[in-house]
Write a structure and sequence with these properties.
Length: about 130
């Protein structure tokens, strides 16, 4: 089933909103990473107990992990928007068949149909 232009436009609005929200979240994480050490003492060990330093590093690592996930999400959303622009959104990038509307509704930035996604997952590639 081919997705209608109206459906594409509705999803585009959702994706653009998600993109702005994701960019905002990335900026917040960046700000937190930059200020975390300053707000909680330096992580150079000069004034802190070694446990304090490890807590700071741990918190910064958690923030960077979340940032990485957000950055990946941002890239997938941007890719989906580009596919909308060139008329290929909703088409599996591997087999060229339409992606199920239910899948697109749940994950509008997917690039593979469920069958190709399952094949990819079995191979361990992990791309969505």
């Amino acid at each position: 089933m081919v997705v209608s232009e109206d459906q594409v436009n509705q999803v585009r609005v959702r994706l653009e909103s998600q993109l702005e929200s994701t960019k905002h979240d990335i900026q917040e994480i960046d700000d937190q990473v930059r200020t975390y050490g300053a707000d909680h003492g330096s992580a150079d060990g000069a004034d802190n107990h070694i446990g304090d330093d490890s807590d700071i590093v741990y918190e910064q690592e958690k923030l960077l992990t979340v940032r990485e996930e957000l950055t990946d999400r941002k890239a997938r959303i941007e890719h989906a928007l580009k596919k909308m622009d060139n008329g290929t959104w909703g088409i599996c990038e591997r087999c060229g068949q339409p992606i199920a509307p239910e899948r697109l509704d749940a994950l509008p930035f997917v690039s593979l149909c469920i069958t190709c996604q399952e094949l990819q997952d079995r191979r361990g590639d992990g791309r969505r």
